[in-house]
Each structure stands twice: as C-alpha cells, then as structure tokens.
Design brief:
The chain has 134 residues and is mainly α. It folds into two domains: 48 residues; 69 residues, no CATH class. Helices cover 54% and strands 10% of the residues. It has four helices and three strands; from the N terminus they run αβαββαα. A three-stranded mixed sheet has the order 1-3-2. The protein is rod-shaped. The relative contact order is 0.09.
Length: 134
C-alpha cells in the first residue's frame, strides 16, 4: 500500500469517527431541547391560571410604598392576576388618576403605554406635589 492510500484511509476513518460523534451530539442536543420544551409546556399548563377566571371579577387594588414599588413608579398593573399596585403616598385626585390609568391597563391588555396615557389623559401628567409625596 502506498503512503497516499494509507493517509486517505486514515483520513476517511477519522472523518467517519468525527461524523458519528457529531451526529450523536446533535441528536442528544435535540433530545435535550425537546425535553426542556416538554417540561416548560407542562409547567405552564399546570401553573398558569386561565384568563377566563378573572372575567367579570373586580380588580384588586393594593397600595405599596415607594421602596416596594420602585423609584419613579406611581403604579403597576398585573393583568394576569387582575391586580393593580399603586403608590401609597398618592392621595385624592392623584390617586384617582393613577387608579384610572392602571385599571385601563387591566381592561385593555392590548393597549401600549402611550395609548393608555392618551386614553386616560396622563401623557404629560404629574402628581400635585402639594397633595402627594412621590
């Protein structure tokens, strides 16, 4: 056997070994990925409540401190829980304005923040510093 034939034979053998390992690794990767997706789907199926459970029920409004809510936030809406969290230092018309804004988020899940602010007239609104401490 000539040297060229030996080299070609060795390269073919090496290539087939590398190819087999790559196929096995690829199959293992796809199997792992499939298992993760199945686990993820099962988790969400078990732990997510259907949205219909909140239809017709009153949204829950909770007051939170600036520390709990975060700096610069007046309110946050959680549509999947039918929950609105509003800064506890807001009073009177300031509280009502933020409440209206957060309820709009809960009732119109598809609306963007800008659309919500335009609809609730809070685009350029800020709380009255003499009424509410923010």
């Amino acid at each position: 056997m000539r040297l060229e034939e030996k080299v070609i034979g060795a390269l073919l053998t090496l290539g087939s070994l590398i190819g087999e390992g790559k196929d096995n690794q690829t199959n293992e990767y796809y199997n792992l990925r499939k298992n993760k997706e199945e686990v993820r789907a099962e988790y969400y199926h078990q732990n997510k409540k259907p949205l219909e459970i909140y239809k017709g029920s009153e949204p829950e409004i909770v007051r939170a401190s600036k520390y709990e809510l975060g700096d610069g936030l007046l309110g946050v809406a959680f549509p999947d829980r039918n929950l609105a969290v509003i800064l506890d230092s807001l009073t009177g018309p300031d509280f009502e304005k933020v409440r209206e804004h957060e309820l709009y988020h809960l009732n119109h899940r598809e609306a963007s923040e800008v659309h919500t602010r335009i609809s609730t007239n809070t685009l350029y609104w800020t709380p009255n510093p003499y009424l509410s401490v923010t």
